[in-house]
Write a structure and sequence with these properties.
25% of the residues lie in helices and 41% in strands. With 227 residues, the chain is α+β, with helices and mostly antiparallel strands. The protein folds into 2 domains: 107 residues, Double Stranded RNA Binding Domain, CATH 3.30.160; 104 residues, Beta Barrel (OB fold (Dihydrolipoamide Acetyltransferase, E2P)), CATH 2.40.50.140. Helix 1 crosses helix 2.
Length: 227
């Protein structure tokens, strides 16, 4: 299924990989790191099937986006594969992949809110040292799931399962009320004024506020969910 961005159809790399493997079971896809200088990774991808060869190149700079803080090389590899697939005719209606377009749009977007929010945020892996009754200014993570429930008194609560930005840590953060409208898997969210508690000798985290600060579901899908 293509992704519509500014009225044009794009396919994620994961979708196109599945399609090419289905149509060409004996295809070969290889990648090569051409250079890694001053934090900029340049990747070449090669796709071979039916005695034809297609190549694609991409580069990413460490720290240029939220994803690139930890996975610049992997991100470049995904984009290079996407461009090689596009050369082979697997591109939707546009040459660039949905992943590349999402990266470009995010870098062009005005980041006015990000510096003050980010400066006040603790990453998920840092909350393990928190003690009951502590209040953490903010916790940032990638959204995995959001489930609504009701307490015995009938109050609405939503439990948000998130991973750290590097994907290595998980935690559940609750917030009073219904699920935040319009959330999607992989979005970057910040929970503000998170109070630490305990339940059955396990830590709990309850946020007073929640804000979506990044719409990176396509980037996250490629890195964390393609399996």
């Amino acid at each position: 299924m293509s992704v519509n961005i500014h009225g044009k159809a794009y396919l994620t790399v994961a979708e196109r990989l599945g399609l090419v493997h289905k149509e060409h079971p004996k295809c070969s896809i290889t990648t090569e790191l051409l250079s890694n200088i001053n934090g900029v990774s340049v990747i070449k991808a090669t796709v071979k099937f039916d005695d034809r060869v297609f190549t694609g190149h991409a580069s990413e700079k460490e720290g240029s986006t939220m994803i690139n803080k930890t996975s610049a090389m992997e991100n470049a590899e995904t984009s290079a594969i996407g461009r090689a697939l596009a050369s082979a005719g697997y591109a939707g209606s546009e040459f660039a992949s949905a992943d590349e377009v999402a990266n470009a749009l995010k870098q062009q977007a005005e980041p006015a809110k990000l510096p003050p929010i980010t400066n006040a945020v603790s990453n998920i892996e840092q909350v393990s040292s928190a003690k009951p009754n502590d209040v953490i200014p903010g916790i940032m993570g990638l959204l995995q799931t959001a489930k609504e429930r009701q307490t015995k008194t009938g109050k609405d609560v939503t439990d948000y399962l998130c991973t750290s930005m590097d994907g290595n840590h998980k935690t559940t953060i609750s917030r009073w009320g219904k699920c935040h409208e319009g959330l999607k898997q992989g979005q970057v969210v910040v929970f503000k004024n998170v109070k630490v508690g305990t339940y059955q000798n396990k830590p709990t985290f309850t946020a007073q506020e929640m804000e979506v600060v990044g719409h990176t579901e396509m980037e996250a899908d490629e890195r964390d969910f393609q399996g």
